[in-house]
Every structure is written in structure tokens, then in C-alpha cells.
């Protein structure tokens, strides 16, 4: 099994959206659990809304709510191929965060491309990710869908600091913004032109990560 924690101390960076959509894509070919370790319980709320959807649009992965660091250390005993962990967006819960990161095989760090977002991202990387020596990738989220330049500049700026960044990035679309309320994920979005683009973005990020993980297969 592989435990993937989605981390960034900056609030609103796109952690929960990334967890839900990577889990949805991964669940098309493997057994997936999402652990909601954020006291805000956004994943739990999202999954509750999904229960109202028709059968074929139901989430294809399991969801567990767990904020106790002790219980989180037992994640690895569960029978799943991949566990995605959604984490809180602040440093108040640094003990929880450290407990999660110490159980994880890989860290995904979503961030917006703006300078004010990149500072806390780099801080999170130095405080939470680097000390554990874990493999990780930054994923740029909420990129301007009409001009990718800011996202490309942010990728370049991070790479210049020696930080690893996914080539694929996620653009800002209404479909993502509405999704928590309807309980939808990219695999259940309606088939409009923009929501298909929104779906493609997370599929591209997922494929990039899956091929990376395939090179370091876990038992
Ligand atoms: N690609 C996107 N396009 C449009 N809206 C997005 C996108 N990604 C996230 N959002 C919206 O931005 C807001 C923050 O996203 P999200 O909740 O995923 O971030 P978070 O890092 O989990 O936040 P928190 O730190 O509060 O847990 C939400 O309203 C979400 O719907
Ligand atoms: Mg969240």
C-alpha cells in the first residue's frame, strides 16, 4: 500500500479538491481510501453530499474521518492499494501533521501560483516535508484557465529553488468550485466542455504521479 498525504499549511491551497480527485482517478483501477484528518471535515462533508447522487455517480472509494494522531499511525494496517490523507491548512495541528507525514510514502503539495501562496508552500516544504526525506511533488492549482503563464512561472521559480513540481497543473474551473456541494468528483462531472477540461487536468496530474509511483512500487 501507498500512503499519500496532501499537505500545505496555507489554507485554501486546493488540498481537499486534490485529495478527492486524485482518489477518484486512482479508484478507477485500484482500492482507495481517503482519510479526512482535517478537523474542518471538508472531505467528510463532500462524501456526505455524494450520498445524495445517483448510484452510478457515487464515490468509488471509501472515506474515514480520523484526527487522532495515535489512530493515524495505524493507517498502514488497512487493506487498500492507496490511502490519500487530507490534512489541515494551518500549523496549529503540527503534531497531527507530523504523525501523518511520518506514516506517508509520498507527499503531494498543492499550491496556487501567486507569490503570496508560494512563501507558505516553501515554508511547509522546509518544516514538514524535507526533514522526513520523503519523495514529494508540488502541484500548481487554480491556474488561470485563459493564460497558463503564471502557473509556468511559478513552476520555474520553485524549480530554481530545487523543489520538485509536477509538469501538469490544475486550472481554475467552476466545476471544481461547485463539486464539494454536489459531492461530485472528476469521474462524475457532467460532460460539458469546461468540466471535461477540468477532468483532464486532474487525470493528467494523476497519470504523472502514477507513473512516478510505478517506478517505486510498494508491496
Ligand atoms: N481547480 C480549482 N478550480 C476552481 N476552484 C477550486 C479549484 N481548486 C479548489 N477550488 C476551490 O478553492 C477553495 C479551496 O479549495 P480546497 O478546499 O480544496 O483547499 P484546501 O487547501 O483544502 O483548503 P483548507 O486549507 O481550508 O482545507 C474551495 O472553495 C474550492 O472549491
Ligand atoms: Mg481542505
Automatic annotation (TrEMBL):
Residues 4-182 form the CobQ/CobB/MinD/ParA nucleotide binding domain. Pfam families: CbiA (PF01656). InterPro entries: CobQ/CobB/MinD/ParA_Nub-bd_dom, DNA_Partitioning_ATPase, P-loop_NTPase. Signal peptide: none annotated. CDD domains: ParAB_family. This is ParA family protein. It comes from Arthrobacter gyeryongensis.
Amino acid at each position: 500500500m501507498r500512503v499519500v498525504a496532501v499537505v500545505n499549511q496555507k489554507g485554501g491551497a486546493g488540498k481537499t479538491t486534490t485529495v478527492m480527485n486524485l482518489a477518484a482517478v486512482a479508484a478507477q483501477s485500484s482500492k482507495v481510501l481517503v482519510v479526512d484528518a482535517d478537523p474542518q471535515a471538508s472531505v467528510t462533508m463532500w462524501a456526505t453530499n455524494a450520498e445524495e447522487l445517483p448510484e452510478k455517480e457515487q464515490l468509488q472509494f471509501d472515506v474515514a474521518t480520523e484526527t487522532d494522531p495515535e489512530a493515524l499511525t495505524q493507517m498502514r494496517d488497512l487493506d487498500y492499494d492507496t490511502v490519500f490523507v487530507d490534512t489541515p491548512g494551518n500549523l496549529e495541528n503540527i503534531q497531527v501533521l507530523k504523525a501523518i507525514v511520518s506514516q506517508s510514502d509520498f507527499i503531494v503539495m498543492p499550491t496556487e501560483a501567486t507569490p503570496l501562496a508560494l512563501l507558505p508552500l516553501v515554508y511547509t516544504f522546509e518544516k514538514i516535508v524535507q526533514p522526513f526525506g520523503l519523495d514529494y511533488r508540488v502541484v500548481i492549482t487554480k491556474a488561470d484557465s485563459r493564460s497558463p503563464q503564471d502557473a509556468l512561472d511559478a513552476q520555474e521559480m520553485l524549480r530554481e529553488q530545487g523543489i520538485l513540481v509536477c509538469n501538469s497543473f490544475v486550472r481554475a474551473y467552476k466545476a471544481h468550485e461547485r463539486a464539494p456541494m454536489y459531492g461530485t468528483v472528476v469521474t462524475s462531472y457532467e460532460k460539458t466542455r469546461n468540466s471535461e477540461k477540468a477532468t483532464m487536468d486532474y487525470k493528467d496530474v494523476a497519470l504523472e504521479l502514477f507513473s512516478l509511483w510505478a517506478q517505486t512500487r510498494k508491496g
